[in-house]
Design a protein that fits this description.
single chain; about 575 residues; alpha/beta; Peroxisomal Thiolase, Chain A, domain 1; 2 domains; 17-stranded mixed β-sheet; 17 helices; 22 strands; about 25% strand; globular
Amino acid sequence: MEHPVKIYATADNIISSLGFTTLENMENIRQYHSGIYRIDDTSLFHEPFMGARIDAARLNQAAREHQLQDYTRMEQLFILSLGDVIRQSGINPAASDCGFIFSTTKGNIDHIGTEAALLSLMARRITAYFGSSHEPIVISNACISGVSALVTASRLIRQGRYKHILVTGGDLLTRFVITGFQSFKSVSPERCRPYDSKRDGLSLGEACGSVLITSDSGLVKESQPIVIEGGAVTNDANHISGPSRTGDGLYYAIRQAMDETDLQPEDISFINTHGTATVYNDEMESKAVEWAGLEHTPLNSLKSYWGHTLGASGIIEAIACFEELRSGEVFGILGFEELGVPKPVNISAEHRHVSMQRCVKTASGFGGCNGAIVFALNTHAKPVKSVLPVSCHITGECSIVNNTITVNSEIRLQTDPKEEFATFIRTAYKQLATDDRKFYKMDDLCKLGYITATHLLATSERYKTCSPLEIGLILSNRSSSLDTDEKHQQIIDEMGDKEASPAVFVYTLPNVVLGELCIRYKIQGENTFFISPDYPADFLTEYARDVMARHTLQLCIIGWCELKGEQYKSHFYILEKTN
């Protein structure tokens, strides 16, 4: 039974191109200052581009003052940001009831080829700095990672697993990231203009943001506390690098998040969207917003101030939402002139004063993932609907290791253990006697997940009767997408920036495994990818049970999908709701 408590978001920090504190960032936004400017640095890209970069001299000075020279640049940002939150709140980060959740897409990717690039190792180094003995939770869910992390934190506190969770998200501007997005032709030559008729792409940025999520009102020092009312994660089941053309996946996330406290459109004061300024993303979001009945609700995107900061975006934009709720203003979209999306959403270039109760924050990303979370002023917060424990049981499992496929203890395929993975997995695909030619374009991690899930779902009668929203996917691994990351890095190192391949870069996110499975098997429910040093089967199962109790899930595929070179292992199982 979950604990019927309010979940507060308190004590926050933003380090970005606009400053090193939340206050400094908000002051710059209120003055319509953007951190996006022309960057001419061939260590990042062979020609100048528009981006948002943290002040290197200021970061170096702060790192020296805190004696952080032995940490990477990404780790320094996490430590500085978290340290500010810890000082503000007075929380003991080493306490047994305090956890850490990290949100990042690439972490220490500038150290690729070393152990530092392992996300779980990076997180451990940071939590060890603060004296925590808990295993940190790392979420790598593409561009919704930050929203996913906040949703996960609120769920774990409601479960009673923790009383407090320090949530932090960060990503850097690196050659790895810039060349990848440039290969998609998705980067604007000017500062991005979300929702504008002349928008022509995104602007990349770097940032780190942190916030304390807690059930202890005694730690909340703000005169107007912020409460998390609900949250949800869904999938488009449409395309791994492009959004749904209908907006259905994002709409489902918004609706499920609002349903946790029975909210109606008139209860929402404003909506902060992902708003990347790419043609199809903004178009999709306008459709989802209209579908949710929020087309008349004030809407904004903050990408024209910070750029797209990837794993940090959901955190720093949520913190901006807190400030907007407290101050009664909806920040304008910098550079917006004329609406350029098919649905008439309520947008302004100017900051607007609004009577505040609550807001919805959304995000969408590669792999077809969508996230939504509702924040309310404490004086208007509604009680979250009580959730009864659900009865679940495991109905099937499949594992692939040492060139052997085992389904429910029965060996389905076994080849010479010395055979290369590429040969083995092609044999496994041909054995299925299915016609899905997209299999051959997948990277090896996705192929491993695909074959495992295909064997597993073939055993499930319940799967055949479930609707897309009644099925979820929750996976984990150790190496994230490092196997393909190294391929992308090798291409740009050996052939140059211009040769970066979008067909490779799209697979440099572990959650794309989820996306491929969602497309193939029409799965639109919960989909989250955790990074762990070891297989956290019990944690994943309990997490899935909570989602099943809270939303419409009837069936969830849970498991481990790890691959790095010739070292691989998968183990998936089906958890079904029985009441």
